[in-house]
Structures are given as C-alpha cells and as structure tokens.
Design brief:
Elements: H1 2-10, E1 20-21, E2 24-25, H2 32-54, H3 57-103
Helix pairs in contact: 2-3
Keywords: Membrane, Mitochondrion, Mitochondrion inner membrane, Transmembrane, Transmembrane helix
Family: Belongs to the COX20 family.
Protein name: Cytochrome c oxidase assembly protein COX20, mitochondrial
Length: about 110
C-alpha cells in the first residue's frame, strides 16, 4: 500500500495556471509580475489617499488609474533597462575572463587599464 503512495507522489505535478500574453506565459516574461504588483498597489494607494483627502469618487478613480499606469510603465522600463545593462556587463566580464584564460601561461599581457 505504501509503495503505491510513493509512486503516486513521484508522478505528482502541481497545478500551475498560466495566462498567455502575446504568445508567452506571463510567468516567463521578465519584470511583468513586479511591475503589475507595484502598479496595482501604488494606484490603489494613491486613489484611496486622494479620496480620503477630497471625497471626490470620480476624480480619485482617475488619479488611481493614472498612477497605476505611470507606476507600472515606469517600473517596467526601469527593470528592463537594468536587466539589459546587467546582461551587457556580464557578457563583457565573460569575454574578459575567457580572454584571460586563453592568454594564461603566455608572455602576452592582457589588454585593459594598467
């Protein structure tokens, strides 16, 4: 009986809902999750604060949605820029390390600041 339970446990695959977004799964798009989480929470916060300050429902909704859009897009572009910059730096470091390994043990000096 316990042997059957162990076999069932090995075959278990957790359910993972996926939402397609332009042909890609949302969980595979870099920066998507954090951008929307920050945008939703920021827009909600701005809308609530504006409503508490002025008691104008329609205007508070407008401010909340506008801040959601601005925060989401702002964080999205910042995150993607940072990711691209880091990827570029890692590629440079990888090339330098490969060049160093290639020249190791020879009389050639590596190029770079001395």
């Amino acid at each position: 009986m316990s042997q059957d339970a162990d076999e069932d446990a090995d075959d278990y695959v957790p359910f993972s809902p996926t939402i397609p977004f332009y042909g890609k799964k949302v969980r595979d798009v870099p920066c998507f999750r954090n951008s929307f989480l920050y945008g939703i929470s920021g827009g909600f916060g701005v809308g609530i604060l504006y409503f508490l300050a002025t008691s104008k429902t329609r205007r508070a909704t407008d401010f909340g949605f506008a801040s959601f859009t601005a925060i989401t897009l702002g964080y999205w572009f910042h995150c993607r820029y940072t990711m691209s910059r880091d990827r570029f730096h890692f590629q440079q470091i990888k090339a330098d390390v490969e060049e160093y390994m290639h020249r190791e043990g020879t009389s050639k000096k590596p190029k770079g600041p001395s």
